[in-house]
UniProtKB/TrEMBL annotation:
Coiled coil: none annotated. Residues 23-278 form the EAL domain. It comes from Hassallia byssoidea VB512170. The chain holds residues 489 to 768 of 777 of the full protein. This is EAL domain-containing protein. It comes from the Bacteria.
Amino acid sequence: VKSQGRNNYQFYHSAINSQASELLSLENSLHYALEREEFIVYYQPQINISTGEIIKMEALLRWQHPKLGLIYPEKFIPLAEETGLIVTIGEWVLKTACAQNKAWQDTLGLPSLSIAVNLSARQFQQSNLVKLVTQILLETQLNPKYLELEITESIAMHNAEFTKAILNEINNMGVYISIDDFGTGYCSFNYLKKFPIHALKIDKSFVRDLTKNSNDAAIITAIIALAHGLNLAVVGEGVETEEQRNLLRILECELMQGYFFSRPVLAEDATKLLRKSKSR
Ligand code: C2E
Ligand code: CA
Ligand code: CA
Ligand code: CA
């Protein structure tokens, strides 16, 4: 029994060690990922359900690791946040996404197509965020009203006065702001009133069991009523089935995003989706 306990301990210990060294080497290669051009922006369409048109694309980052293959943000964004690398990575995402949206607008004749970009907490604490956004919009020639920045409730709630000031500056530029993963954080209704917010994105955890769980349906109904009452757009995220789409439509959720419409795809495949969306 004793020796088995020891083996377990050793096993446990080496598992932790290998996890730690995996993280270390991941962090190491994350430092070079940008200059080695290993990041790729995927795009997922947002649909206006009453017209069926794609009105917006959300930029979602992936990392094409030379040895480990395609890595999803859940695996490296926390690391990028901790190390501060998210600031330069985020800059690159913003620039790439804005340039891509401008190209779509011009070459496909879709002048009112928008792009949504996720902002992390760390980016939000940078004193030059407003300047950076201004500069990228200028460089890419994208009209500010076709850019939407997605922030989470925790960003909004952290240092609320500071956040409000920054959001006001961003809003004054004409850029839209939406609250991502709405309903999962600590958002206070007070801030919804005070912050210049354009849209609420209902977290996909509520959408997942929407058709099976009456609690989720009640929460979504309440979020939609709240959004409409405050004159905000509301987006249903993580829509995977026709049933979910139909129920969300009945609940008057006008914008939707999810695998049912399309997974996040490479720019060239997103271009095809946009062409199809336009010709319908
Ligand atoms: P998010 O902003 O909430 O993005 C939605 C996530 O749900 C994406 O995961 C997307 O691929 C996934 N998704 C979309 N439709 C469905 C669906 O129908 N069912 C399910 N189960 N999932 C769906 P992804 O791309 O892995 O990104 C995860 C998170 O990483 C994002 O969550 C966002 O918080 C973060 N992230 C992604 N790109 C960036 C970035 O450029 N910067 C920052 N700071 N964060 C990013
Ligand atoms: Ca998002
Ligand atoms: Ca979300
Ligand atoms: Ca999220």
